[in-house]
Design brief:
Largest sheet: 5 strands, antiparallel
CATH architecture of the largest domain: Roll
Number of helices: 2
CATH class of the largest domain: Alpha Beta
Order of helices and strands: EEEHEEEEEEH
Strand content: 35-45%
Number of domains: 2
């Protein structure tokens, strides 16, 4: 069975940057499971997995536009430290949840200077070329419940 719309796919991956540094990998853990064709993966990776079968191994290089998007300077803003009241020891690298007009958004503290904090709402991998090494480990039809919910249930679900 090959991967197509509404397939539940499991795969192992290793993600590296252009310098060959490993950013993330599932190899020493459970494979990742996703519902194909429902936007649950970055667009370029989902496109490359279309039509693949169990046992297929592929190397995929994605431009930022096919991955987590281009880096957007407008998503970086400076706010007064007092705006983060209730958060102790604010420091660069902290990941926080910001409440925006579009709903909650993950932000990263990139700088703390005197009484001002710089927050970056870009995805940590925005603007980066992504290199995936992938091995397809399973393909099956989605259940009615999975289709209704738009994501995988059961083993490998990760609660998304």
């Amino acid at each position: 069975m090959s991967i197509s719309q509404n397939s539940v796919v499991t795969f192992h991956y290793t993600l590296t940057d252009d310098a060959g540094q490993v950013i993330d990998s599932s190899v020493s853990a459970e494979p990742i499971a996703y519902l194909h064709g429902h936007g649950n993966l970055v667009p370029g990776l989902e496109r490359e997995l279309e039509g693949r079968n169990v046992g297929d191994k592929l190397n995929v290089t994605l431009s930022p536009a096919e991955g987590y998007g281009e880096y957007d300077q407008e998503l970086v803003q400076r706010v007064p430290l007092r705006a983060l009241r209730g958060i102790a020891n604010v420091a660069p690298g902290m990941r926080l949840q910001a409440h925006t007009p579009e709903g909650p958004r993950a932000v990263t503290v990139t700088d703390v200077a005197a009484d001002m904090v710089t927050l970056d709402a870009n995805h940590p991998l925005a603007g980066k070329v992504l290199n995936f090494e992938v091995e397809v480990t399973g393909v099956r039809d989605a259940t009615e419940e999975e289709l209704a919910h738009g994501h995988v249930h059961g083993a490998g679900d990760h609660g998304h």
